[in-house]
Design goal:
Layout (H helix, E strand, L loop, with lengths): L1 H17 L30 E4 L15 H13 L1 H22 L4 E12 L14 E14 L5 H67 L5 H16 L1 H18 L23 E4 L1 H4 L4 H22 L4 E12 L11 E10 L7 H67 L5 H35 L10
Parallel strand pairs: 1-4
Antiparallel strand pairs: 2-3, 3-5, 5-6
């Protein structure tokens, strides 16, 4: 009866102490920022980006470009990218470590069993004339250990482990979001380079056509032979522009293969056509106060702050007493048949207390270090938030400038095309100069190439805005 009361009493005390509040600060997510916008006074604004409290594109954000090739490649990238696979594996590891840490709050039970043989030295006991017998000793037992965790050190460790897993989850989300941006950017780069190559090849074809025109004029006596040399020089210069563009195109295609998790020899990137991409008329942009609750890198920094806050509790609990309870029951017998009888049983029930008395200031310093780490984590969080707001402002301003540039370049291209047409007509009629044609054709080519690059840049900036505002990347349909 006394033993039963003792066991029950110890269990009751353990449960009561385990219900005590954990020491250290409780984590509270940082308050959302008060700022209501992204752009600085005087920044260029675009009607394409619309601030909205309910901003969220319908489905995966890259579908707003209307490119079936991009949709297909994006599905492959999300399924096969190795950076994402690594992030997922790291997440699973931290989840399991959090489960293991939480298990330390529970009692542990170990089963032990032993078979031993022993030859007894009778003469050492003061008896002579007796043979030394050999006996077998059999034992089986259970050991139970429990850390009462009076001041919550284990609970704070579990809290920190869960927060670390949450942080890795956010980092995995960030890896997915970054991958979608990189994949879209690579596809747009391929499309833009192909458009530049096409524009340059058209300039080469125009050079060849002009050369034929000059030769015809020479035969008719209306042009000097030196004119053909001038056009040939221009033709060679335009042809020399194509190989570097092709080299960049090959590199972009190889980079896209890496993003989808394939070797360049095992996969061929689609021939993305810049004209097949359509810029969305409007892009929903979430408010700053909501961005901090959606953007993965900000949420990862918040989880890191949570870890640092929980670590203060761990360091604080180490400065207080620690109580552990252990119990053991063992059955020991020489004949195996007696192993499970009551007479072969023995048990112990113990509780122990450890209190740090002197540690030369180590525990106090460790707590101060944990507080400093929390302050650093908060500064990192604030820096991540400011960096995110700056990125959104940069991209929104860039889109506005892209639109203005495209308008101006289109006007320049139209004017240059008219000038070239007029120059060629005048040259055929004998009233124009070859120099005028070459100059205006050069202006036309430069305007065309600049417009193509500006179109690709605008689409890439739109993709960057989707990523910067943490638009949805999960709704992937194959």
């Amino acid at each position: 009866m006394n033993r039963t009361r003792l066991t029950a009493g110890a269990a009751a005390v353990a449960l009561a102490l385990a219900g005590c509040k954990a020491v250290g600060p409780n984590f509270e997510p940082p308050a959302p920022p008060a700022t209501s916008g992204y752009l600085m006074k005087g920044d260029a604004q675009t009607p394409t980006a619309q601030l909205s409290p309910d901003a969220r594109p319908a489905g995966a954000w890259w579908k707003s470009f209307g490119s079936a090739d991009l949709d297909h490649v994006m599905d492959r990238a999300l399924a096969g990218n190795q950076t994402v696979a690594q992030a997922n594996a790291s997440l699973e590891r931290l989840r399991q470590l959090a489960i293991a840490q939480h298990a330390q709050q529970k009692p542990s039970v170990d089963l032990s069993a032993q078979i031993a043989g022993e030859r007894i030295n009778i003469q050492s006991l003061g008896f002579s004339g007796f043979p030394n017998p050999t006996i077998g000793l059999y034992s089986v037992g259970l050991n139970v250990n429990y850390d009462v965790d009076v001041f919550g050190g284990l609970r704070r460790r579990t809290e920190a482990a869960i927060a670390q897993a949450e942080q890795q989850q956010r980092q995995a989300d960030a890896a997915y979001l970054t991958l979608t941006g990189q994949t879209a950017t690579a596809a747009l780069q391929i499309a833009t380079l192909r458009a530049q190559i096409s524009t340059t090849e058209q300039a080469v074809a125009d050079d060849q056509r002009l050369l034929e025109l000059v030769h015809a004029a020479e035969k008719a006596g209306g042009a000097a032979p030196a004119g053909a040399v001038t056009v040939q020089v221009q033709l060679a210069q335009d042809e020399a522009l194509i190989p570097p563009l092709r080299a960049q195109l090959m590199q972009a295609r190889h980079g896209l293969a890496q993003l989808v998790g394939e070797a360049p020899a095992d996969w061929t990137a689609p021939d993305f056509d810049l004209a097949s991409f359509s810029a969305p008329a409007q892009i929903p942009v979430t408010l700053p106060s909501q961005l901090v609750r959606r953007r993965p890198d900000i949420l990862a920094a918040e989880s890191n702050l949570h870890v640092a806050t929980a670590d203060i509790g761990v360091a604080t609990a180490a400065m207080y007493p620690d109580i552990k309870i252990s119990a053991n029951i063992t059955q020991t017998a020489i004949p195996p048949g007696n192993l499970l009888t009551y007479g072969a049983s023995g048990w112990t029930l113990a509780s122990g207390l450890t209190y740090p008395v002197f540690n030369a200031g180590r525990l106090k310093a460790e707590k101060a270090a944990a507080v400093a780490q929390m302050n650093a984590a908060y500064a990192q969080y604030r820096g991540t938030v400011l960096g995110a707001f700056t990125q959104v402002a940069d991209v929104m301003s860039a889109i506005a400038e892209d639109e203005a540039e495209l308008t101006a370049l289109q006007t320049a291209e139209d004017a240059a095309a008219k000038s070239v047409k007029n120059d060629e007509v005048a040259f055929r009629l004998g009233g124009g100069s070859l120099r005028d044609i070459l100059d205006d054709r050069r202006k036309l080519y430069l305007a065309q190439r600049a417009r193509v690059m500006a179109e690709g840049r605008r689409l890439a900036d739109i993709a960057s805005l989707y990523v910067a505002t943490a638009s949805d990347w999960r709704e992937v349909k194959s």
